[in-house]
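In the design runs reported in the main text, the only information available to the sequence generator was the tokenized backbone. The following block is the verbatim input for one such run; it is reproduced so that readers can re-run the procedure and compare outputs position by position.
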């Protein structure tokens, strides 16, 4: 049973425009049909975050958004906090993955360097 605390209410001074309504409809339909993993592609500034906020509001489900860097994570946090002021919006940055990639990079670099030195 849902109560008022479980409602994702979108606060925005504008409505979806351009391709956004079709993208929102397709994503919502896909999730309702059981497609739990979908991708939204768009160029910078095309309104992907606003589109996803509309999807979250229509599905009314807690959502995990993953960003590939801390700058984008902070930007997403700010934008979602703005359009969902009545809901909990949190973000967490893990440096573990960065360390993992740096370790892999170091192994590759050292291996290539050693290979070139031996030549």
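Verbatim output:
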């Amino acid at each position: 049973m849902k109560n008022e605390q479980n409602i994702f209410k979108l606060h925005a001074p504008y409505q979806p425009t351009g391709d956004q309504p079709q993208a929102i409809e397709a994503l919502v339909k896909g999730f309702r049909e059981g497609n739990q993993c979908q991708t939204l592609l768009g160029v910078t500034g095309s309104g992907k975050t606003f589109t996803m906020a509309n999807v979250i509001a229509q599905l009314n489900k807690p959502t995990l958004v993953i960003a590939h860097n801390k700058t984008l994570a902070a930007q997403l946090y700010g934008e979602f906090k703005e359009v969902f002021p009545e809901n909990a919006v949190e973000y967490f940055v893990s440096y573990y993955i960065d360390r993992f990639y740096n370790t892999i990079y170091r192994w590759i670099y050292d291996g290539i360097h050693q290979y070139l030195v031996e030549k």
